[in-house]
Amino acid sequence: MYTNGLDMKSKEIACFSYDDTHHFHLDERSLRYYYPPRIGANLSEGFDTFQQLDDAADDHLDSLLKTIINLERRTGAKCQANIITWRGMMTKIMATPFDTFNGVQCYKFETISLLPAPWAETSRDYIESREDLTVSNSAQYCSVVKTGIGESKLILGGEVDALWDTKPPDPSSPINWVELKTAATPLSDRDILKYERKLLKFWIQSFLLGVPKIIVGFRSKEGVLQSLEELETAQIPRLVKAKGKGSWDGNVCINFTAVFLDCMVTSCDFIVLGWGACGVLCSLVTNAYWELDRAKCDDYRGWWDLADTEEGEGAGG
């Protein structure tokens, strides 16, 4: 069993952005900074003008793979891995032992909690007018991190909401990311249990990308923001175990995922969880992969050879 598995090991190695029209860029243009929203803000307002991302055209793994290719070309070194996928795929795997509840994100809460630049560089007018901004989920900053679970090494790609302060000048230093979540204010034991189950995915999502802090906005039934709670990601499993109702156990999630990934890695030389531009899909049923169009893979030689490593590494997002 991986008893020390609750320690976060993720380290950012690259990033990319989607702009307001959801076009891909190899830069930080969609990076945002956290600044507390006004208590009393109505999170239900603005959805009549909500600009929802049209996800009918699946992005697959293209953006993640392009970022890895760019990193390899810049550094001249392979990003060695066993598994490549998005954080969302890994979240589903890790939550499997206790997956009886699904949460909902509130884009309005994100909109009124974010700044386009550090606080000192942002005007007071912008800060105070955030509640009037159009809500949209098209622009995203995505972090690509190197991590590991059990014996499997991974490279994960996933969206992060904001910075608590600024990125450290030393790339090897931890980044003070912030994840923003919403939940109904618990009013009964049943509500408390419901919130505790929500914390499972809150924790997994932040754990996988190495996000140290989660800020939860509690809202009324009418959608009015009533309070904020700051949670240290590393402490959530301990809080649930010590003070909660014990509806889930972080170590069980880690151990299940470690065994699951180890089984895949020993059965496959190289695993891509999801579709990529080159048309490669790993089958967990037959433990094999199919090349649908190898000609399209010419530009992906950098990651195609990831299996050619000493120990192997994995990627997820």
Summed up, the helix count is 8
Major sheet strand order = 2-1-6-7-4-12
The succession of helices and strands, N to C, reads EEEHEHHEHEEEEHEEHHEEEH
Distance between the termini: 24 Å
Whole-number average pLDDT?
82
In short:
With 317 residues, the protein is of the alpha+beta class. The chain contains 8 helices and 14 strands. Mean pLDDT is 82; it is low at 101-105 and 275-317.
Describe the protein's architecture and organization.
With 317 residues, the chain is α+β, with helices and mostly antiparallel strands. Mean pLDDT is 82; it is low at 101-105 and 275-317. Helix 2 packs across helix 5 and helix 2 (87-95) crosses helix 7 (250-267). The chain is 26% helix and 23% strand. A hairpin with a 4-residue loop joins strand 13 (280-283) and strand 14. The strands form four sheets. It has a six-stranded mixed sheet.
